[in-house]
What we know:
Blueprint: H1 2-17, H2 19-54, H3 61-93, H4 95-108, H5 120-147, H6 152-178, H7 183-192, H8 194-207, H9 217-228
Amino acid sequence: xxxxxxxxxxxxxxxxxxxxxxxxxxxxxxxxxxxxxxxxxxxxxxxxxxxxxxxxxxxxxxxxxxxxxxxxxxxxxxxxxxxxxxxxxxxxxxxxxxxxxxxxxxxxxxxxxxxxxxxxxxxxxxxxxxxxxxxxxxxxxxxxxxxxxxxxxxxxxxxxxxxxxxxxxxxxxxxxxxxxxxxxxxxxxxxxxxxxxxxxxxxxxxxxxxxxxxxxxxxxxxxxxxxxxxxxxxxxxxxxx
Length: 241
């Protein structure tokens, strides 16, 4: 888990330290900021809707405490939903830039590689197709979370874990696509390195809740995984907390 967190931050730092990577980042910044702004508005209204359902009515003092707790979990769930939506949309819309970012990172690291020369439409379509199976998995987690709709803490925990799993597939997509890894190979890698991915996806989701910083999570994750190299190079130590 610690290795996953460290890997993410090493990619984040490298993205800012290397001029060639910053140049790609500036190109996609407007798109990422626009998407984030729209989704932040959606998150606000969704949180308000959930709070209106969960906050009980009454004059007793403890209802106020229950209301604060309900508002917290409504906000948490809304932020997680917004993070998932942002990464899913941004990974498709910015697919060519993310591939260029990975290519330049690999080049800096001395890894023999080639840049994807497919059109923007083809790369965006491929990213969307790669999101389908992880999205189905997220929906299953969502259905399980709905079973506990009237117990917000457990619902939030289930949904958050499912969202981390989905985010990992999205964050991994650029690098996995460059290595031509099929879904089953990606899935197997995440099972074998579950602690690495829990740390990597967990810190990514956490930072998605930080205004402004959240815009840079996706490109930073792409740089981090490209810097790490082929997923099989992840050491067995990633299996440990």
